[in-house]
Amino acid sequence: METVTLNTGIKFPIIGSGTNTFGKVDHAYQGEINGDTTEILMAIDAGYRHFDTAISYRNESVVGKALGESKKARNEFFITSKIPGKQEYYADKEAVKKGVKQSLQALNTAYIDLYLIHHPWDNLVQMLSMWQVLEDYVDQGKLKAIGVSNFNEKELGYLIENGRIKPAVNQVESHPRNWNDVIINYSLAQEVVPEVWGPLTRVSDQAKEKLSEIGAKYNKTWAQVILRYQIERGVVVIPKSHNQKRQEQNLEIFDFKLSDEDKQFISAQ
């Protein structure tokens, strides 16, 4: 598995698996948690070692359960979770600590590799206060790296300027309908690794047709072309699939490179 190096020096797998519908009835985001680890174990068998979850997904315990069932050592995995940008989690230091402890307990782990503020809100000072508590957990070794999710330039820049520890990652939406170039390029310029959620979502039939034409030159699918485009510009991707074959295909993106002409065409989609 290829990696990128975070500004902390930690190696970050360049592709991982989203999990927000895993372990839920009917694979529905709001579905009841059923504890089913099938998709995660399939992904582990396929070669995934990087998994992304969150308190808001309600399934941290399912991810933790799957890691235990895999019988693999904890240090073989890179686990990301997120604390909500909601008042019950940022009201004061104890509220933040409660969230971190909740994640550690649910994941059944002594540490989390990457912990993100899931969403910004309209108070930069409060976000910094939450950030400072997360920094303390880095000092304790319970959070190996910390970052943000869905932050714009102003919000990310504020933490960079005022925090003691620089955010390592900014996880944002990016796909052919919205490549989100501005915040991705800003993050890269600030040495904050951009990571994208939903990389294979909201792709129009027209875009799939065009991307499939590009993929045919490399014997790759439209989805593999998108993932390759993202990693070639320094972006970490976390596609998600409940299908074993597609999980495997999403990892098969390291044996080809897109031409400059193809990348220019894709960026214009």
Characteristics:
269 residues, alpha/beta, eight-stranded parallel β-sheet, two-stranded antiparallel ribbon, 11 helices, 43% helix, 14% strand
Q: Which whole number gives the mean pLDDT?
A: 96
- Mind summarizing the main beta sheet? 8 strands, parallel
End-to-end separation: 28 Å
Strand tally is 10
Task: Report helical residue fraction.
Answer: 40-55%
What oligomeric state do the depicted chains represent?
single chain
Q: How large is the share of residues in beta strands? A: 5-15%
- Number of contiguous helices: 11
Q: What is the N-to-C order of secondary-structure elements (H for helix, E for strand)?
A: EEEHEHEHHEHEHEHEHHEHH
Descriptive account of the structure:
With 269 residues, this protein is an alpha/beta fold. It contains 11 helices and 10 strands. Helix 5 links the parallel strand 6 (114-117) and strand 7 (146-149). It is globular and about 55 Å long. It starts with a strand and ends with a helix. The relative contact order is 0.13.
